[in-house]
Amino acid sequence: MHKRINYRLITVAMMVVSLGLGACRDSGEGDYLVVSGKIFVFNYRIAEATYLLTLARVRPLPDGAILETSFDNPAGGDPMIVRQKIWPAMEKITVESPPVKCVKADRVYKVSMRLEDADGKLLQTIEREMISDTDQSKMPDKPLVVGPFYDPNPDKSAAGNSAPACPA
Predict the structure, then answer these.
(1) So what's the pLDDT on residue 30?
(2) Mean pLDDT in residue range 44-63
(3) Residue of 139, 129, 116 lying closest to 39 (CA atoms)
(4) Taking every pair of C-alpha atoms in the chain, what is the biggest distance, in angstroms?
(5) CA geometry: angle at 81 spanning 104 and 51, to 5°?
(6) Three-class SS state of 153
(7) Is 24 exposed, middle or buried (0-12, 13-18, 19+ CB in 10 A)?
């Protein structure tokens, strides 16, 4: 009977330790979000390119959290900034830039993210580099199709690429 009590005590002790370790995961330390995917999206039908990133939540977010993402502008000039509210229940978050022009293949573009609470307190920063394997000059500068039924664009100049010159 004495051995049974020791085994029970050991089992109970192991359960308490494992519960304690499990609680450490949400102790308030570490990242809230991790980047789970990143890509340049080239939509040839509407002649538009965008940055697209997906994030996964790794621990609970506070109510009212805001994600501010800054994208390098491939055409030059100021970075493009997107601010979006992040709901606490969101497991996956998608961040897409406004349409971009002048994306070059094999060039590094920077993306910076700031996660803030409702009061503007910085919770986390994420820095990533993105490289496209496609040059945007291969895309038409005007949509190939128009309307909800993807009708061919009546503007016959849409097939070519007469976009303005991009920075070198």
Answers:
(1) 85
(2) 95
(3) 129
(4) 91
(5) 35
(6) coil
(7) exposed
